[in-house]
């Protein structure tokens, strides 16, 4: 234990030692720093990834996730160019003979106020940045994609990217490069969101009007993040307009939303409040069916943000999210939702050293039950909570030399479930599965630098330590996965440690102004996972930690990419190849009992897995026609000794072929249309081929695991946006969005139900279930 703790401290110490080695107090400084924040001139929002280019040296830097930048240069005269896609560039002439602070505000370009721009970064950033497998989408781009029921959806947008697949029709779950949904780390202002779905997955928890920045990492995840094998979805909320009071909203077919933001004190203190609610339940009393009239089906969510600039070197941010789904009928009820809270303190020690200190709380819970007025009434609930602290440091050595390091610690509590009778007449007694407790710590160090003019290298390591903690009874299992023994651990006692190093490496070779080659390697470890026997996922799926019986999952991913830009970066093309090798992969035994099972670990089987593929992407980033076309060729396979007789079988989300097309066309300054078409190989499925009967109970016999597939999935969605008349003097601006989901009414299989033939009881037939036919919708969006 002591050795592991020392190893964590050594990594952090190495970062601090390197930091102070760069600035000796004895030598007279020959280099000075210019630093500050880059913001939107209209509303004061931080511009994440804005670039600062030094004309004399030919290099520069980019602003971080808080809009902060820093450049270290020798004494002299310089021309600095500040730029961000969709904004007018600013050129500043400076003479640098001492450290100085330069706050910059960029004005949106006239064209970008109405134009949809595909990328959310500098034009050639896809060539110059060292990372690959990183996708950035602007809220405006997301808004232009036709959506189910007209509700703009972040998750549906990223499902249209190469390498990202939907787990089910209309669902918010997604698989990245053959992984499972629980292998995606989803963050909202740095707090983990454990269930990103509303209404069983038809909508996501993210309100597009409240989002400032969104980034999806498909493998090349920065060293400061860990705990998942497949991807990181990093969503950042707006800080709130620091210039003037403003609002945005929309009234749709089944839901409405409203966002209000503004300064409490101009350019110093801001607020943001964003809310959404569906109102299908308001129409249920009009139904002819009595049960429907007494039912409820809706969701709501609320985003809150407060920011305060204490002084030039200190900023404070408070943000929170509250969301809940409610489903009720006369004899059934279900509710589930997320809550998150984040407090962040930005501190600038000097022009080179930036710190972000974060406190995090996150909770996901659900409940399922029946009416409280019956003797058979019962209630089942479950929850998962995190408390965390993290400190992240950025040290700007030179424009082409950056150091990142930090530490973090989390406390997890898992409540797998508790079932009990409710009401005075209930005949049920309480049944509770023991809670699990765990600590998760990490320290990381990452260094990015240039080698000459053409090569950028980024390397790093993350050291993670996961500790199971009592109070707990730990069961031992024999070769048949039957309980053979148990051991009790008192409250607070550490009974299992998992420690590992996670190296990261990225290399970018810029061949010339239009070509680049990239390579990266990434090792990741996952200590908590989800128990689900459905590919579609369910809000009732239970999260559980690694333990003496379940080793952490480990993945090693290698990727290589070729990137090419055409016609002054208007067209961007890329080919990425990846190979991912996974250890301790989790799957479940046939007929696994995962609900309210205190011996659930006995249902788990582990082995190895691999995923590999090619991702092709072509983007057009400017002009009247914008969008992208992507194609993914991939495979994902598992080998687990106790499943499928030890033979390799395809993973649940193995879809060899997928085509994504997303296009937007500006018909006139006020009218635009968008379309997206998706084609994917059918989802793997395990089907019964025979059945037998024991004491009146029918037992199915299945094919090999995931040995069959549904029909291929494809769908076309279209939308037309009509903006109001242009009037610069008018603060209220509105637009109508008319959209059609599944335009040609494709009947995509959502599930297969096997039924007994009423005329011939010995025969069984399969009946396909289709979820969404053609669905038109209309939405009115506004802002003021």
Automatic annotation (TrEMBL):
<dbReference type="GO" id="GO:0015344">
    <property type="term" value="F:siderophore uptake transmembrane transporter activity"/>
</dbReference>
<dbReference type="Pfam" id="PF07715">
    <property type="entry name" value="Plug"/>
</dbReference>
<dbReference type="InterPro" id="IPR037066">
    <property type="entry name" value="Plug_dom_sf"/>
</dbReference>
<feature type="domain" description="TonB-dependent receptor plug">
    <location>
        <begin position="151"/>
        <end position="228"/>
    </location>
</feature>
<feature type="signal peptide">
    <location>
        <begin position="1"/>
        <end position="21"/>
    </location>
</feature>
<dbReference type="InterPro" id="IPR008969">
    <property type="entry name" value="CarboxyPept-like_regulatory"/>
</dbReference>
<dbReference type="GO" id="GO:0009279">
    <property type="term" value="C:cell outer membrane"/>
</dbReference>
<protein>
    <submittedName>
        <fullName>Outer membrane receptor for ferrienterochelin and colicin</fullName>
    </submittedName>
</protein>
<dbReference type="InterPro" id="IPR036942">
    <property type="entry name" value="Beta-barrel_TonB_sf"/>
</dbReference>
<dbReference type="Pfam" id="PF13715">
    <property type="entry name" value="CarbopepD_reg_2"/>
</dbReference>
<keyword id="KW-0472">Membrane</keyword>
<keyword id="KW-0732">Signal</keyword>
<keyword id="KW-0813">Transport</keyword>
<keyword id="KW-1134">Transmembrane beta strand</keyword>
<dbReference type="InterPro" id="IPR039426">
    <property type="entry name" value="TonB-dep_rcpt-like"/>
</dbReference>
<keyword id="KW-0812">Transmembrane</keyword>
<keyword id="KW-0998">Cell outer membrane</keyword>
<dbReference type="GO" id="GO:0044718">
    <property type="term" value="P:siderophore transmembrane transport"/>
</dbReference>
<keyword id="KW-0675">Receptor</keyword>
<dbReference type="InterPro" id="IPR012910">
    <property type="entry name" value="Plug_dom"/>
</dbReference>
């Amino acid at each position: 234990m002591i050795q592991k703790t020392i190893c964590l401290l050594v990594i952090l110490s190495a970062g601090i030692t390197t930091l102070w080695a760069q600035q000796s107090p004895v030598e007279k400084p020959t280099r000075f720093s210019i630093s500050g924040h880059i913001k939107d001139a209209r509303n004061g929002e931080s511009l994440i990834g804005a670039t600062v280019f030094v004309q004399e040296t030919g290099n520069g830097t980019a602003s971080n996730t808080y809009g902060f930048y820093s450049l270290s240069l020798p004494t002299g005269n310089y021309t600095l160019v500040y730029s961000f896609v969709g904004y007018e560039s600013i050129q500043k002439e400076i003479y640098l003979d001492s450290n100085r602070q330069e706050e910059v505000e960029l004005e949106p370009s006239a064209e970008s106020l109405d134009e949809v721009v595909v990328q959310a970064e500098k034009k050639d950033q896809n060539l110059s940045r060292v990372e690959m497998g990183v996708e950035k989408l602007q809220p405006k781009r997301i808004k232009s994609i036709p959506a189910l029921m007209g509700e703009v959806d972040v998750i549906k947008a990223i499902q249209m990217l190469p390498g990202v697949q939907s787990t089910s029709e209309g669902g918010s779950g997604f698989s990245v490069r053959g992984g499972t949904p629980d292998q995606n780390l989803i963050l909202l202002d740095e707090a983990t969101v454990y269930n990103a779905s509303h209404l069983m997955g038809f909508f996501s928890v993210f309100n597009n009007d409240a989002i400032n920045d969104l980034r999806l990492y498909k493998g090349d995840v920065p060293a400061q993040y860990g705990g998942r094998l497949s991807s990181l979805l990093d969503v950042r909320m707006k800080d709130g307009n620091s210039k003037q009071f403003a609002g945005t909203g929309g009234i749709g077919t089944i839901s409405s939303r409203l966002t209000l933001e503004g300064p409490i004190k101009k350019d110093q203190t801001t607020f943001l409040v964003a809310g959404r609610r569906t109102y299908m339940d308001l129409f249920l009393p009009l139904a002819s069916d009595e049960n429907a009239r007494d039912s409820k089906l809706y969701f709501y969510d609320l985003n809150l943000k407060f920011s305060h600039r204490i002084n030039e070197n200190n900023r404070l941010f408070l943000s929170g999210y509250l969301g809940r789904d409610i489903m009720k009928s006369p004899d059934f009820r279900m509710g589930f939702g997320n809550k998150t809270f984040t407090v962040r303190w930005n501190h600038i020690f000097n022009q080179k050293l930036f710190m972000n200190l974060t406190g995090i709380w996150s909770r996901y819970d659900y409940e399922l039950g029946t009416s409280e007025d019956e003797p058979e009434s019962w209630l089942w609930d479950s929850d998962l909570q995190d408390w965390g602290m993290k400190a992240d440091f950025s040290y700007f050595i030179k424009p082409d030399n950056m150091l990142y390091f930090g530490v973090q610690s989390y406390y997890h509590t898992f409540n797998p479930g508790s079932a009990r009778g409710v009401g005075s007449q209930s005949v049920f007694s309480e049944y509770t599965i023991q809670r699990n407790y765990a600590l998760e710590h990490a320290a990381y160090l990452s260094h990015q630098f240039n080698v000459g003019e053409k090569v950028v290298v980024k390397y790093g390591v993350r050291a993670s330590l996961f500790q199971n903690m009592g109070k707990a009874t730990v069961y031992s299992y024999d070769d048949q996965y039957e309980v053979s023994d148990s051991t009790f651990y008192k409250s607070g006692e550490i009974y299992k440690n998992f420690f590992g190093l996670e190296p990261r490496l990225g290399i970018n070779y810029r061949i010339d102004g239009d070509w680049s080659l990239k390579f990266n390697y990434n090792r990741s470890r996952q200590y908590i996972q989800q128990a689900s026997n459905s590919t579609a996922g369910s809000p009732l799926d239970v999260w559980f930690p690694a333990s003496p019986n379940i080793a952490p999952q480990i993945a090693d991913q290698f990727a290589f990419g070729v990137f090419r830009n055409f016609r002054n970066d208007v067209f961007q093309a890329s080919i990425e190849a990846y190979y991912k090798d996974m250890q301790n992969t989790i799957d479940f035994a046939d007929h696994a009992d995962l609900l309210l099972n205190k011996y659930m670990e006995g249902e788990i089987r582990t082995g190895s897995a691999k995923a590999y593929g090619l991702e092709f992407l072509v983007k057009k980033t400017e002009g009247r026609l914008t969008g992208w076309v992507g194609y993914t060729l991939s495979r994902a396979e598992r080998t687990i000794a106790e499943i499928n007789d030890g033979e390799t079988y395809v993973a649940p989300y193995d879809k060899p072929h997928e085509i994504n097309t997303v296009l937007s066309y500006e018909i006139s300054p006020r009218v635009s249309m968008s379309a997206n078409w998706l084609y994917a190989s059918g989802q793997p499925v395990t089907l019964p081929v025979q059945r037998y009967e024991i004491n009146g109970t029918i037992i199915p016999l299945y094919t090999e695991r995931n040995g069959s597939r549904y029909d291929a999935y494809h769908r076309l969605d279209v939308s037309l946006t009509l903006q109001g008349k242009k009037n610069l003097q008018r603060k209220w601006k509105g637009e109508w969005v008319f959209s059609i989901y599944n335009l040609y009414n494709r009947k995509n299989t959502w599930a297969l139900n096997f039924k007994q033939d009423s005329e011939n009881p010995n025969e069984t037939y399969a009946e396909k279930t289709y979820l969404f036919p053609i669905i038109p919708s209309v939405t009115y969006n506004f802002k003021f």
